[in-house]
Amino acid sequence: MFPYYEENKTGHEALIVELDAIREEIYTFINKTGASQNEADSMSEKINHVLRDWLIDHILKSDMKMKGFMNDAR
After folding, report:
1. Where are the alpha helices (DSSP H) in the chain?
2. Is 33 helix (H, G, I), strand (E, B) or coil?
3. Angle, nearest 10°, between helix axes 37-53 and 5-31?
4. Please, which residues have CB within 8 angstroms of residue 12's CB and are 6 or more apart in sequence?
5. How confident is the model at residue 21 (pLDDT cuts 50, 70, 90)?
6. 15 CB-contact burial (10 Å; exposed 0-12 / middle 13-18 / buried 19+)
7. How far apart are CA 40 and CA 46, in angstroms?
8. Does the predicted model carry a pTM greater than 0.90?
């Protein structure tokens, strides 16, 4: 069994919570009258930050720990 399973699972669950919050912000923004370009830019930066952090911090560090275990599972 993968020894970092719980840690990895927790990371995936945290991402889902964060993405749900961003989705709600997007819906609010879309339905907002008079939303500014600055608000759109800020939201875009936040989304980019979350996805970049996920790619670097989770996929490249945490998920890559599974590589050897996945090869052994075949």
Report:
1. 5-31, 37-53, 67-73
2. coil
3. 170
4. 58
5. very high
6. middle
7. 10
8. no
User: What span, in angstroms and rounded, lies between the C-alpha atoms of 55 and 49?
Assistant: 10
Q: What is the enclosing helix (H) or strand (E) of 36?
A: none
Classify residue 41 by burial, with Cβ atoms within 10 Å: 0-12, 13-18, 19+. exposed
Over residues 25-59, the pLDDT tens digits come to: 888 888 888 888 898 898 899 899 998 988 888 88
- Alpha carbons within 13 angstroms on the beta-carbon side of residue 61 total 9
Cα-based distances in Å from 39 to 5, 28, 49: 37, 11, 15
